[in-house]
Amino acid sequence: MLSMANLIAALIVIPLIFAVLIALMPSDKARGIVVYAGGVINIALVLCTTYMWVFKRNQLSNVTYDGSGICFNLPFNDVFNFLTLAGDLILMVVIIALSFKYHKKIIALLSIIQTCIVMWVEVNGPHPKGEQLSMHFDWLSCIMILIIGIVGSLIAIYAVGYMRGYHVHHKEFADRRKFFFSMIFVFYAAMFGLVTTQHIMWLECFWETTSVCSFLLIGYTKTDEAITNCFRALWMNLVGGLGFAVVILFSAYKFHSFNMNDLIYTFSSDISNTAATLCLAALAFAAISKTAQFPFSKWLLGAMVAPTPSSALLHSATMVKAGVYLLLRISPALSGTKVGTCVYLVGGFTFFAASLLAISQSDGKKVLAYSTISNLGLMVACAGIGTVETVWAAMFLMIFHAISKSMCFQAVGAIENSTHSRDIEDMQGLMRRLPKLALILLIGMVGMYLAPFGMLISKWAALKSMVDASSTIMVLFVCFGSASTMFYWTKWMSKLLGTNEEKQNDVTEKNEYISMFTHAGLAICVCLGLPIISSKVVLPHVLLSQFWYNYGIYGQASISSKDTESLIMGSFDTLKTLVPLNENNLRTMIFMIIAIIIVPVVTYFLTRNTKTKPVIGYMNGINTGDNKHFTDSFGGEKELHVSNWYMDDYFGEKKIFTPSVIIGVILNLSMLGIALATWMGGVL
Hints:
By secondary structure, the protein is mainly α. It has helices at about 5-25, 30-55, 75-100, 105-125, 140-170, 175-195, 200-220, 225-255, 260-270, 275-290, 295-300, 310-315, 320-335, 340-360, 365-385, 390-420, 430-435, 435-450, 455-470, 470-495, 510-530, 530-550, 560-575, 585-605, 650, 655-684; strands spanning about 65, 70, 135, 620-625, 630, 635-640. The chain has 2 domains: about 5-580 and about 645-684, no CATH class; about 610-640, no CATH class.
């Protein structure tokens, strides 16, 4: 019989089984079939779990309602507990072995410290009080497994064809596709566990597993640059992961609970608790490092050396969202605190600075990387503020960003395989040269910054809440960061739509197009379904987290899921005005989306049989007939060159990256210093 416990266990275990199967596959064709099967099963399990939660949650047995969701243990829960501890040790051994191999011994020390703390607490720490259920599932978990399962699996399907082409064009690299796909499925298992567990020690294991998977995939090519960048990513994530070690210690010795939701309730209900302030800052610090906020941004930029599917999957759509997920989980406790203030300043500044830095980049993947860091910064800022409006905005930013940015990364990867370049200047007239890839990239760009797509609506919601809160500095960060965002996306888009008479051979495989066009369809469907997703999914989560944690009724087992729904509906009338959606806005948005879809389609069918006549443009001289060369007034032959202005002298990395890192260090140290001083003051 299907149950939530069995489904979540399957989501964690089945990807691990597929990781082993992929490693054993002798041929490329067989491996591709296994990857397809694993992706389809992932999607089926995620949809089944979502169905159980949405339609059957009032009928579930062997679960406990804690207000915001349901809690339960997995089948063979003790076995899972043992496996997570064994996983910590395995991760430590892997890190130590590779750190010594590549002479990065100090990095091994970070892993040893963290693992030893976890082992010490497990062996010698006090036992928690009362029953400790290991898993928790709510609307936020539901959103996350859909992103991981659907977007993540589509990226794996795309990767089968992409990696084949990658090694055709990069014969200098050893073909390690078995390892590549195995690590992707290990990553799935870790992410599914991370977003469904409430056991802090399990969460730490899954968290570090995602970091190690990222580390191994960044180093896929084993070049000097890849090795340097993968170890940078590892140590930066391990430094953040030390925050979990601090929380585990305090969970055992101070709060006597390993239940994350219990800890959040303690943090939010007892703001005078100095240990709670320190733990809150430690968790926020871990999330900031995972989301590549300043001063940790360089690890994600370096991750772009990895093959494109890992950039799309780990470093844009899913792994970096783990940090956003954690901040959204603890947002009720962050709201109105000094720690929360530091978090939203770090996020707001990163949004602004990374947007400026993106202007000076011509490498397509690097623009996408800076854009990812920037948008993650806005999500971090929204979670740090922690109001109904900003959490609503952060959740929608997370959803739309995962789909649109994954689509952009895949398109750029396919373009690179066909043109042997990912430089924006080499994409002149791509709409004529590679129309399908250019269209997919354009849809991804439009989804990132133009109305009526959800990223813009979410940014507007965040800006409105910051104006209402009279946060001048955050208003400035959002306004100027958004203006910079529009500048670099429009600049890139103009190259795609420019003139070019050359034809290009499209080497993109069918499975890559299946993934990319499905992404495009998802982006449109999610945008059309925004009102339903808002009222039925996002808003219930936001209201529940606010009510249960802030009104002192978290964990009342007598309150059923049905009573919870009644509570939401009773509160909706008074709180719905806080959410930036009303009927007029929704009608306008839906009309704009339909127009965006219908007008190009109708135009295509009306003009597809129309004969075209090339138009010779004026080129400050006599056009020779190809719109590329002209004769100037002195009779000289000239070639026309059209290029964007990247403002490197103003916004280049040499100008503002280091100052941004310094400001990021100051903000993060301020957060940790405030928390540590508060705790020391309480102890003394």
